[in-house]
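User: Some background: our group keeps a shared notebook of sequences we're curious about, and every so often someone picks one and asks for a predicted structure to add to the entry. Today it's my turn. The entry only has the sequence so far, pasted here. Could you supply the structure so I can complete it?
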Amino acid sequence: MVSKWTVNLISYALDIWNGKLGEILTLITQSPQEFKNGEIWKVILKINDAMQAIGLALLVLFFAVGVIKTYGSFVEVRKPEHVIKIFVRFAISKAIVTYGLEILTSIFEIGQGIVSSILRTATLSSFDKAVIPKEMIDAINKLGFLDSIPIWLITFIGCLLITVLSFVMILTVYGRFFKLYLYTAIAPIPLSSFAAESTQQVGKQFLKSFCAVCLEGAIIVLACVIFSIFASSPPNIDPNSGAPVMVWKYLGELIFNMLVLVGTVKASDRVVREMMGL
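Assistant: Of course. Here's the predicted structure to add to the notebook entry:
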């Protein structure tokens, strides 16, 4: 009976893990407009519209402050080349605030194109599932009641860790969607800083940070692809070794690879920011 519980427990933990990997593939290939049937996106659009009015007001303020700081007197402003420069900056800044949503959407689509290219190159439509080797199942089923208890305890701890790692990983991916929504909702305010040279760095940093969030998807997919290759080649099980050794080696190597994957997924934001010099 304990032997059967052990196999079922490992199978249950792996089912959770495989399910979360499949959910990640679905989430990463989704756009914010599709996530949760687009209900969240509708609210974000309303907030973005409200922020746009504030952004345009700040645009005028930043523009006026920028002109005063850049030009010491109105005599300089009267020069044709300065007037043209001021007009062009204001027009471009207003366009950035007005069409900020379209700009962010285009950046996200570029990021999604990178994700699709990775999956297409890796020829993956789904991630390979982690499975229990048949040799290990047979060895566990041959154990008596007392011999099965230590293995069950090891399995319980290992499967608990696998379950926790599954939810940590999926929560990180959900967190990426939260960041996408937050950036989109508040976008008009930081984008209005392009109106002046003294404040434009805020807008540049905002766009770089948004690009980093979009590229997180590529890092997460790459990590999952690498793990999928490991999963397709499970640890070599020596049929002559005892069941405890088989379980220990299998769960140990599997959990180690899972820890590396979850650590990479959680660090995807930092990895991309370092790559972009943020």
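Suggested note for the entry: The chain has a mean pLDDT of 79. The first helix runs from residue 2 to 28.
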